[in-house]
Amino acid sequence: MMEPVLYIHPAKQGVHFEVEEGSGRAYGLLPVGAAALVNRLRREGIGVRGLNYAMEKALRPGFSLRDWLANRQGVRIILVDLHWYEHCYGALEMVEFCKETLPWAWTVIGGLTASGFAQEILENFPAVDVIIRGDAEQPLLALAQRLLRSGRRAGGELPDLQGIPNLSYRREGKVVHAAEVYVAATADLDELDFVHLDFMDNERDYLRHEYLVADLEKTQQALASQPYLGRWICNARGCIYHCSYCGGSKDAHKRLASRPGLVTRSPKRMADDLKALQAMGVHQAAFSYDLAELGEAYWRELFDEMRRQGVKIGIYNEFFQSPDAAFIAELARAADMEHTCVALSPLSGNERVRRLNGKHYSNERFFDVLEALNEHNFYIFVYFSLNLPGESEETFQQTLELAEQVYDFYPSRLLKILDTVHTLDPFSPMMLSPEKYGIEISMRTFMDWYAYCQNTMKGSREARTEAWRGFTLKDSQARRLRQMADAWDAARVGKERSWWLVPPSW
Fold it and tell me: Is-above-0.70 flag for pTM?
């Protein structure tokens, strides 16, 4: 039987892009909550078929989206995610293409970016029928049930959607925002299935895409033979921090999802998910929130439950701050270390710049953590940022020095060092309080990020400059990003196994 609902993950570049040299990153990772939303519908008997368009084009360059859609004439609802700002253009073009091809289907979008710009999107893009703001599990199920029962088809007024929380839509030509608000609690998150992707075309290829490890040679060997499989899963929503660059900070979650703080999934349910992934042959589970930040009682209970259930799986964890040695030792004991990897983000070699941007630890403390990780042979990523507030050509010399010290200290086969160039995140502290960070911003509206995506589809040397980043330092003489990027690349000579180039794409 034909599924009445489609879920499509768009490419940054839109519908008509071709994968070719210099085409830029399509950003094929699904939002971590997408599977849970779809699986909630499926649990209630609503069939869903999924497509990762960004990945599909890489797998099959001749893939025809029009033909794929045309073979689904029974579809009534099309879901397109707009979580990360990098998909502002691609998601809306996808919605417009779907509406053109299947004009009777209702189109629904959601995610943090869609939530923050719901009014503007509905005013400017008539192909979008409904936006779900904030947490979507209960609203999407209620919406899908009401639309499928209504018997109506797109092209006219939506059926009565009153009483369904978190919705934004048009009624009689005017944008309406539901007054009712739904915010997920632990009990809600524990009921969700974040694991299974069997509704997606080419599920196993996608699981290969989610595997992360710092050893490039190991990854290449895996791709050439038996592929390693990874899966991102949710262990918490919200945040307790206000990192300058992050559109998922504590204040952003409060603004976009009415979430006042952090809500976690229970350790028991997390262990159940890890057991299910292990049974599927998945080698590594990646956590959406830093496990160390959930507290010792939480992670000890999770590790104990993993041992009780006989779970031994690789874990990818991004440290928000600096973890204790006790956590590192227990993670090494609980996880499959062959497939375990962690990430640290000192951002800058200058401690003042690091604190300004939300990381509260010293260089001395950073090396204490590296020593503890080295003791247990962890694969690690170390992230710096070329252009965050406060980073000048002078402080960047400290960043280069710190990166070189890390390279000299940590085994090269276990290490990947990266320096990225940030774009202004919607609703990040940098956007909301630019004066605090000594910056001037040039992106404020949805159409600003839409234009950014249109103009950064392909790789370019300009990606290593201030161009299309949405902000500059007020002190315009403090740095020249192209020269800083070149200096980073020059310092890489002789360290190529562990030290990565500044990316040539956005």
Answer: yes
